[in-house]
Amino acid sequence: MYAFAYQKPATVAEAVKLLSADPEAKALAGGMTYIPVLKQRLARPSAVVDLSGLGLAGIGVSGGVVTIGAMTTHAAVAASAEVRRAIPALAALAGGIGDNEVRHRGTIGGSLANDDPTADYPAAVLALGATLRTDRRTIAADGYFQGMFTTALEPGEIITAVAFPVPEKAGYAKFPNPASRYAMVGVFVARGPQGVRVAVTGAGQGGVFRHTAMEKALEKSWSADALAGVATPAEGLNADLHGSAEYRAHLVGVMARRALAAAG
Ligand SMILES: Cc1cc2nc3c(=O)[nH]c(=O)nc-3n(C[C@H](O)[C@H](O)[C@H](O)COP(=O)(O)OP(=O)(O)OC[C@H]3O[C@@H](n4cnc5c(N)ncnc54)[C@H](O)[C@@H]3O)c2cc1C
Q1: Is 195 helix (H, G, I), strand (E, B) or coil?
Q2: Domain extent for 13
Q3: Where residue 227 sits, what CATH number does that domain have?
């Protein structure tokens, strides 16, 4: 690691002030992605601003919306009785992220700010039509994800919470990378206040995307049969050591049917 100053503000306003005063300063949440980057000397921040003192962890359900504080760990989301009751698919997704150590440190805010193209949470945020709250605005899911590792966040902007409308039905299925458990392909299906939405993570070269052909088919009939005739083009999908684009296209169909079965 290169040397950097460590700051631990007590309020969001203070954190924003530190980050906007110095464009080389960087926020730190659970550190599960950022600390390995620092250790490999892939980043050289002048300062690291620790977000753990801002009181941004916690889960609440009201008015048909599940609100999760940005500093809430994956393990807390997975274990939450409220999330398990309101959106069991979201609790199950969080329970499948990485391993125990990663789940007890990594946070929903860190995952969404990082926007890894193989991360799990982006599929839930997009399929459930969630809203991201930051220190300065709210951002709808459809306008948030802008390519791999690229989001609508401005420099120094802090995610404070994520609000998920409770769906009528939702399910998630992931084909994990055997080593890291990141999604080679993950599909989240939901039927809720915004209609039927299907989001695919892990497969797209541009990160998470909505599968509109599957959405149309499931709008007509919420059944595995409805998906039978829906193809996923291999063009634009990732191809690597773990699988070809054609193989991922095939997996999208398999995971979508499994997610639908999980949704009931
Ligand atoms: C071995 C391993 C396996 C993993 N497997 C999976 C997996 O299966 N699925 C999966 O989805 N993820 C997986 N992850 C990633 C994990 O979910 C991380 O927790 C997540 O990517 C980053 O969250 P964090 O809280 O650790 O953030 P950090 O590493 O602290 O930060 C990540 C980035 O986000 C920024 N940031 C953090 N919080 C905020 C905020 N509130 N507002 C604005 N910017 C912010 C930081 O500046 C940094 O750039 C894995 C990680 C490891 C190490």
Answers
A1: strand
A2: 5-50
A3: 3.30.465.10
Q: How many domains does the chain have?
A: 2
CB 190 within 8 Å of CB 197: yes
DSSP state of 53: T
Distance 52 CA to ligand 1 centre (A): 14
Report residue 200: phi and psi, to 5°: -120, 125
- Contact status, residue 184 vs residue 251, Cβ threshold 8 Å: yes
- In this predicted model, what pLDDT tens digit does every residue of 107-122 receive, in sequence order? 999 999 999 999 999 9
Which residue has its alpha carbon closest to ligand 1 atom 27? 110
CA 33 to centroid of ligand 1, rounded, Å: 5
Whether residues 91 and 140 share a domain: the answer is yes
CA neighbor of 76 nearest in space, from 109, 115, 124: 109
Q: pTM, whole model, 2 decimals?
A: 0.98
Do 46 and 95 share a domain, yes or no?
no
Number of Cβ within a 10 Å radius of residue 80: 21
Nearest CA to ligand 1 atom 53: 32
